[in-house]
Amino acid sequence: MLRWLLVTLLALVLINGLWPWLRRLGLGKLPGDFAFRLFGREWYLPLASTLLLSLLAAAIARWV
C-alpha cells in the first residue's frame, strides 16, 4: 500500500513539473478536460488528459 502511495505521489510531482510542456502539446485542452471558475479561482479537471496519459503509461509498461 505504501509503495502505491509513493508511486502516485511521485507521478503527481512529475506531471506537475512537466505541466507547462504538456500543455503546449495540447494536453489539458482535450474534449473532456473541464476548466471552470468557482469562488474566484480557476479549477481544472483534466479527465481526458489523465486517461490518455494512463493509456500511454500502460503501453510503455507493457512494452518494457
What attributes does this structure have?
62% helix; 64 residues; 19% strand; DUF2905 domain-containing protein; alpha+beta; two-stranded antiparallel ribbon; transmembrane
Low-pLDDT residue intervals, each spanning 5 or more residues: none
Rg on CA atoms, Å: 14 Å
Order of strands, main sheet, comes to 1-2
* Number of beta-strand segments: 2
Write down the domain tally.
1
Number of separate helices? 2
InterPro entries: DUF2905
Keywords: Membrane, Transmembrane, Transmembrane helix
Protein name: DUF2905 domain-containing protein
Overview in brief:
The protein is an alpha+beta fold. 62% of the residues lie in helices and 19% in strands.
Write the layout of secondary structure elements.
Elements: H1 2-24, E1 33-38, E2 41-46, H2 47-63
Antiparallel strand pairs: 1-2
Explain this structure to me?
- The chain has one domain.
- It has 2 helices and 2 strands.
- The protein has helices at residues 2-24, 47-63, and strands spanning 33-38, 41-46.
- The model has no long low-confidence stretch (mean pLDDT 82).
